Amino acid sequence: MYIMSMLRFICQRNIHQVRHFHKCIIQQTEAVAAMNTSLLESVATQKELPVNSKIEQIANQIISLNLIEVAQLSELLKKKLNLPDAMPMNSFVAGPVKEEEVEEAAVVQTSFTVKLKSFDEKQKIALIKEVKNILPNCNLVQAKKFVENTPSIIKSDLSKQDADQLADVITKVGGIVEIV
């Protein structure tokens, strides 16, 4: 099928145009191949530049420093070169962690689960009807079993606002809920 479409294209066009197009494509392909070859050769022939022995000696001394000495060196260089503090260096030195810092670093909960813990027996029917409306593909029999088998999770992976709204709706019809 591809060959047929190419033959149809060639027959519809002037043969000289097709030959010229073909020659251009071959020339471009050869030029790209030559560039790639020259780049590979230049990278292969390129050698490492010689390093000054003084700089190599300094690098070896820095490598042999421990963490505290690196922090001190960094502070000294900042003072001598008048560099601003981009990152506080005292974070490198291990020290006691305050409880306030741990609380600030605590993960913020973004996903909440609404759990039905218990319900008021007098409003059981209203709660069953509400559960039927809340849960997708749930009939009255399933909703009744769901309510009677408390504690059970009504919905999970909700935002804080959605979880609060759902808890309010369940509480109004006699359910006791917990947002986890």
UniProtKB/TrEMBL annotation:
Annotated keywords: Ribonucleoprotein, Ribosomal protein
Residue ranges of domain Large ribosomal subunit protein bL12 oligomerization in the record: 54-95
Keyword match Coiled coil: no
Gene3D superfamilies reported for this sequence: 3.30.1390.10
InterPro entries documented for this protein: Ribosomal_bL12, Ribosomal_bL12_C, Ribosomal_bL12_C/ClpS-like, Ribosomal_bL12_oligo, Ribosomal_bL12_oligo_N_sf
Molecular functions (GO terms): mRNA binding; structural constituent of ribosome
GO terms of biological process kind: translation
GO cellular component, one term: mitochondrial large ribosomal subunit
Domain (Large ribosomal subunit protein bL12 C-terminal): residue spans on this chain: 112-179
Entry annotated with the keyword Transmembrane: no
UniProt record similarity statement: Belongs to the bacterial ribosomal protein bL12 family.
Protein's name in the database: Ribosomal protein L12
Annotated organism of origin: Apis cerana cerana (Oriental honeybee)
Gene it is expressed from: RPL12
